[in-house]
Amino acid sequence: MASLTGMAQTLQRGPVSGTAAKPGKRKPFALDFYSTAVGKKYVMAITGLIGIGFVIGHMVGNLKAYLGVVQHHGSETYDVDIYGEFLREILVPILPRTVFLWIMRVVLIGAVVLHVHAAATLTVMNRTARPVKYQSARDYQVANFASRTMRWTGIMVVLFLAWHLADLTWGWVNPGFERGLVYRNLDASLSRIPVAILYIVANIALGIHLFHGTWSLFQSMGWNNPKFNAWRKHAAAGVATLIVVGNVSFPIMTLAGVIEFDPSVPSIHEIEASEGADH
User: Fold this and answer.
1) What number of CA atoms fall less than 13 Å from residue 227's CA on the CB side?
2) From CA 156, how far away is CA 130, in angstroms rounded?
3) What b/e readout covers 114-124, taking b as 16+ CB neighbours within 10 angstroms?
4) pLDDT for 131-153, tens place per residue?
5) Based on C-alpha coordinates, what's the Rg of the chain?
6) What's the half-sphere exposure (Cβ side, CA atoms, 13 Å) at 246?
7) Which pLDDT belongs to residue 26?
8) Predicted TM-score (pTM) above 0.70
9) Which DSSP string do the residues of 93-137 spell out, in sequence order?
10) Nearest 5 degrees, angle CA 277-CA 278-CA 279?
11) Are 72 and 268 in contact (CB under 8 A)?
12) Rounded CA gap, 106 and 275, in Å?
């Protein structure tokens, strides 16, 4: 009788918690992977590669400012303005004018957003999992310096990116901004000493961030081998130095008068308008 009573009580309790619970709906693989620390590191590495590629390409294109005035369709104009027009005309007529350029911009902005989000959430995960900091014996000095600078240089780079867009893309803070006239807008912006100093400081911060970011990128992707660590360090230093020297040269050379806009030089818009009238 007692056994029947006990059985009845067991049945009244219902199923044991956890064994009969309905499984929750699984997240898509990409989101599930991104929710892990490894996934966030991969996202930071991939978006970092996109950022490095853009920064190098952007700097190389801007170096055309040093070529000054060149011949273009029988007229003289600034070579960097021709380059800017080329970017706006990519894949025309397959795509409307400037569409591909905006696709590249959206990809870059998306990469920046993902990079920042992955960095912030990974930091929270690390602090939750390890409230007490520790120092690894491996790469002690590099890791220690990175931990003290990456967050702040990253914030500086994001703020500088916002200023850079407002200055040379949208023209909100560029005096007398003229869309499409890259050389003129560059000179107008960097001729201002406070702005030139801002660009120099921001690009030094960018170089520090890229040095540690490039170093960490190899480790995040699993390309970490003691045989290649010296090569990794040289590659990171080379990328950072190349970008800092190239980008810092623009404000310095503008203040020195090497980059100086001449309003008598025909603009790329005037040349194209003249060609359109001829046809």
Assistant:
1) 1
2) 27
3) bbbebbeebee
4) 655 444 444 455 556 557 788 99
5) 27
6) 19
7) 78
8) yes
9) TTS-TTHHHHHHHHHHHHHHHHHHHHHHHHHHHHHHH-SS----S
10) 90
11) yes
12) 32
